[in-house]
């Protein structure tokens, strides 16, 4: 070998050694291995882990570099990832006295309100959205069954309470009489066929407040008559989330029913009296929010232009600004991920910002321990579609009060 060739080999060898020295050594206890093993235990992709721990837009790339040993997280970043909970925060209580089924479960907001009573055991759940299923499993440790329309009512376990939030759909105009047959082809029919077959002691259904006026009142009348025809004492009320300690002007209708054959004291039921707890938007805001939630100049200019146009037309549509002193926000919707215009937070010297996923969780009254294992876009959709947990919990307690004092015993 020539002297020149020998020098080239030595040079290449030196470069390789230098490169190996630059890269952190991947050992059993190195951050690369610890992070990867944590992610595998959580059954998450790199993007899902980045989203779950609240990293910035391209957090998955950072996770990938860490796992490949190309860079290292700070001690704070590593601790944050390794402390992410592996045990579900809201495990099912199989010894609880009342069995529940959770239909159109979403991310389990209604289930959570009942869980907080300490008296319910969920024996069946159903949800069709794969991202909602992921969030549900992360928090409750169970994967809901899929499309309820494909599941026979005979295969549903026996239960004491049926709960669900169902979409508002118009019913068939074919029959002149309002009743069960008019509901076919709607998701409400899925609820009624299960109630008809399993005859639970009670149910709680949640819907948008406009259900009462939908289709000139015919939709609600059909629902009420159908449930009464199944021998249930039916109650309904519109309640505001802001009256139950969450700073959101969210109005929803709640429909409660008791089986007259199984609950002899059904007339004792009354909806909860709102506690009118004073809160403000400041109660749900995070400190040191990532700049990715600040809206761009183009989006902010677009919001302002559209608001001016709406004002000229004489309507009040457009973005709405809130600050920490605001008593409450507008209603959070599943469309919040698009531009956040319904709830924007003022910032000094900056464009306003959107709420973070944790803030929208708080806006619906979800506990801090509730895990958000999905992207910002999905979390906005999920919490926007969910329920105000404190309202559900207040109603759940009133339902269980009736069942606790029921003297009628079922014959197996």
From TrEMBL:
Enzyme Commission code: 2.1.1.37
Domain HTH cro/C1-type: 35-81
Enzyme class: transferase
A biological process term (GO) from this entry: methylation
Active site residues according to the UniProt entry: 168
Keywords: Methyltransferase, Restriction system, S-adenosyl-L-methionine, Transferase
Signal peptide: none
Catalytically driven reaction(s): a 2'-deoxycytidine in DNA + S-adenosyl-L-methionine = a 5-methyl-2'-deoxycytidine in DNA + S-adenosyl-L-homocysteine + H(+)
Superkingdom to which the source organism belongs: Bacteria
One GO molecular-function entry: DNA binding
Protein name listed in UniProt: Cytosine-specific methyltransferase
Chain's gene name: dcm
């Amino acid at each position: 070998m020539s002297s020149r060739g020998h020098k080239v080999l030595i040079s290449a060898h030196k470069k390789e050694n230098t490169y190996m020295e630059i890269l952190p050594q991947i050992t059993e206890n190195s951050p690369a291995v610890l992070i990867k093993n944590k992610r595998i235990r959580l059954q998450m992709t790199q993007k899902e882990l980045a989203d779950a721990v609240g990293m910035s837009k391209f957090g998955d790339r950072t996770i990938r570099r860490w796992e490949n040993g190309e860079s290292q997280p700070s001690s704070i970043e590593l601790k944050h990832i390794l402390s992410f909970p592996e045990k579900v925060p809201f495990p099912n209580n199989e010894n609880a006295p009342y069995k529940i089924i959770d239909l159109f479960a979403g991310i389990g907001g209604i289930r959570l309100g009942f869980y907080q009573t300490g008296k319910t055991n969920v024996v069946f759940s159903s949800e069709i959205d794969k991202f909602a299923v992921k969030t549900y499993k992360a928090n409750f440790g169970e994967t809901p069954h899929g499309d309820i329309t494909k599941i026979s009512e005979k295969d549903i376990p026996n239960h004491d309470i049926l709960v669900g939030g169902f979409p508002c759909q118009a019913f068939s105009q074919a029959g002149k009489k309002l009743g069960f047959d008019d509901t076919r082809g709607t998701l409400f029919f899925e609820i009624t066929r299960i109630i008809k077959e399993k005859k639970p002691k009670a149910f709680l259904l949640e819907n948008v407040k406009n259900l009462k006026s939908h289709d000139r009142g015919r939709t609600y009348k059909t629902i009420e008559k159908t449930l009464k025809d199944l021998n249930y004492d039916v109650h309904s009320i519109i309640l505001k989330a802001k009256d139950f300690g969450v700073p959101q002007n969210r109005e929803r209708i709640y429909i409660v029913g008791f089986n007259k054959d199984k609950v002899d004291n059904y007339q004792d039921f009354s909806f909860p009296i709102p506690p009118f707890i004073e809160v403000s938007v400041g109660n749900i805001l995070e400190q040191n929010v990532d700049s990715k939630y600040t809206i761009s100049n183009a989006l902010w200019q677009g919001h302002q232009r559209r608001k001016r146009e709406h004002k000229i037309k004489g309507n009040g549509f457009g973005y709405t600004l809130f600050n920490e002193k605001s008593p409450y926000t507008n209603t959070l919707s599943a469309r919040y991920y698009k531009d956040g215009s319904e709830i924007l937070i003022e910032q000094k010297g900056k464009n306003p910002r959107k709420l973070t996923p944790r803030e929208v969780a708080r806006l619906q009254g979800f506990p801090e321990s509730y895990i958000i294992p999905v992207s910002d876009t999905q979390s906005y959709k999920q919490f926007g579609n969910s329920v105000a947990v404190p309202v559900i919990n207040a109603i759940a307690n009133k339902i269980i009060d009736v069942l606790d004092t029921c003297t009628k015993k079922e014959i197996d």
